[in-house]
């Protein structure tokens, strides 16, 4: 059986492709949710992986939820309100929790529309590179819904409260150029060059010692929710580990002889 999240490994870089183009790369299905968890756990256990690229198959990055299932009241959408609450916790909300514990840098290569939970998925990544064909919409309110997957946590941290409020309250779509202007993505590239540009960036990241990369990412995560004191305390605990890492010793020795 083909996985809904295809993984290609090339040296220290993995490329994860959401392979559900027939449903707009929707991420609400049980299989794709479990796949994200499995891939995260596998990478965390493998110190040879230095960076991950996330993209979508076909023309869409991710349409988020399966709107047809909503309209037909299928699956979780046919449950009563109490059971639906549990279904969100045990379903789509497992993705932000999984990506939140991914230890290596995660680059979103946004190849097309990122809508609703698909937009939020891109916000869960550390870095976002967009194709010129990409677009973004926090479109929940247009269907009478709210971001149920953590979007109201991720989006303001990516672009600030006011911009996040505008996208969330209007549900309107913005193009790649606007996303770049607002700081939602770090760069926009020609569509045919998207993966190669993402790979170039991933290679620049993955060339660095893997343990240092993972600790640096953890410190950045701490800076979002923690205090200066907690971040300094964590850095003080981590830095001796870095000093005693074999790769640090090798690179220092190489620096001394260069």
Structure description:
The strands form two sheets. A six-stranded mixed sheet has the order 1-2-3-5-7-10, sandwiched between helices. It has helices spanning 30-44, 67-72, 81-90, 94-100, 117-123, 151-159, 161-170, 176-182, 194-206, 210-225, 228-243, 246-257, and strands at 5-10, 13-18, 51-56, 60-62, 106-110, 113-115, 127-131, 135-137, 173-175, 187-189. A hairpin with a 2-residue loop joins strand 1 (5-10) and strand 2 (13-18). The model has no long low-confidence stretch (mean pLDDT 94). The protein folds into two domains: 5-207, 2-enoyl-CoA Hydratase, Chain A, domain 1 (Alpha-Beta Complex), CATH 3.90.226; 210-255, no CATH class. Helix 5 (117-123) crosses helix 6 (151-159) and helix 6 packs across helix 7. Helix content is 50%, strand content 17%. It is globular, with a radius of gyration of 19 Å. The chain is an alpha/beta fold and 258 residues long.
The CATH C-level name of the largest domain is Alpha Beta
Low-confidence stretches: none
Measured as a percent range, the helix fraction is 40-55%
**If helices are DSSP runs of H or I spanning 4 or more residues, what is the number of helices?**
12
User: And the CATH topology of the largest domain?
Assistant: 2-enoyl-CoA Hydratase, Chain A, domain 1
Domains, number: 2
Class from secondary-structure proportions: alpha/beta
Rg value: 19 Å
Number of strands: 10
The backbone outline, from C-alpha atoms, is globular
Averaged pLDDT: 94
Examine the secondary-structure arrangement and name the CATH architecture of the largest domain: Alpha-Beta Complex
Distance between the amino and carboxyl termini: 51 Å
Function: Could possibly oxidize fatty acids using specific components.
Catalytic activity: a 4-saturated-(3S)-3-hydroxyacyl-CoA = a (3E)-enoyl-CoA + H2O; a (3S)-3-hydroxyacyl-CoA = a (2E)-enoyl-CoA + H2O
GO molecular function: enoyl-CoA hydratase activity
Protein name: Enoyl-CoA hydratase
């Amino acid at each position: 059986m083909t996985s809904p999240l295809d993984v290609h490994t090339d040296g220290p870089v993995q490329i994860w492709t959401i392979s559900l183009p027939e449903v707009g790369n929707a991420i609400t299905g049980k299989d794709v949710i479990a796949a994200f968890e499995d891939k995260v756990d596998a990478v965390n256990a493998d110190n040879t992986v230095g960076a991950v690229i996330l993209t979508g198959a076909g023309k869409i990055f991710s349409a988020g939820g399966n709107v047809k299932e909503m309209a037909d009241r299928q699956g979780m959408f046919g449950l009563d309100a109490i059971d639906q609450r549990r279904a969100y916790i045990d379903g789509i909300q497992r993705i932000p929790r999984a990506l939140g514990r991914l230890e290596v840098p995660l680059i979103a290569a946004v190849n097309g529309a990122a809508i609703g939970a698909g937009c939020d998925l891109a916000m869960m990544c550390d870095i976002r590179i967009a194709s010129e064909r990409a677009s973004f919409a926090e479109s929940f309110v247009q269907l009478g819904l709210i971001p149920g997957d953590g979007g109201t946590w991720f989006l303001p941290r990516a672009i600030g409260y006011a911009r996040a409020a505008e996208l969330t309250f209007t549900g309107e779509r913005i193009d790649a150029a606007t996303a770049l202007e607002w700081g939602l993505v770090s760069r926009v590239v020609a569509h045919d060059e998207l993966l190669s540009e993402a790979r170039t960036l991933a290679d620049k990241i993955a060339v660095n010692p893997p343990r240092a990369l993972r600790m640096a990412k953890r410190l950045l995560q701490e800076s979002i929710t923690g205090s200066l004191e907690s971040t300094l305390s964590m850095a003080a605990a981590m830095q001796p580990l870095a000093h005693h890492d074999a790769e640090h010793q090798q690179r220092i020795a190489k620096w001394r002889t260069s």
